[in-house]
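Reading a protein record of the kind used here takes little practice once its layout is understood. Each number in the token line that follows is a code from a learned vocabulary of backbone shapes. One such record is shown here in full, so that the layout can be seen directly:
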Amino acid sequence: MSDNDLAHSSSRVPMPPGMLIRELDLSDATVASTVHAVGLRAYAVEAELIDFDGIPALSESLQRMTSRPLRWLGAVTGEGAVAAFVAWQTDSGQHITHIDRVCVDPAWFRRGLASCLLDHLLAEVTASSEVRVSTGADNQPAVKLYERLGFSRGVDFEPVPGLRMAQFVLHG
């Protein structure tokens, strides 16, 4: 296991064989390009689920994505392919972590990767923080995932006409 590979003993969901959770370095152009492509594929599926193709991440450039002050954690195959990732930002002054995105490559759907990544993030990285996340209110797989992990659903909101978002919070 390399220095970038993270132990995953706290997960309630076992990782698929050969899969590792590790920090992702988006200053590496290959990693950044792969993460961007996985995100585009995942958000295309969400756009269909929620019947809204204006998800901001679908039009986000690689440069814009890598310029954001986010930390990245990925589920990576033994061959080094990024199968899923989570990105977040923590406001240390207020002890609030904002999950910016959770994406699973559609080729890796239904294998528990989002659960594993979020389990790890919640147990190892943000254990004493309040954690906030939002998703399309009609994205039932994501809504069920956050509820299963103990998040409380707040009031839905509509940032633009036609897009209803669900907010979730987990108190650390």
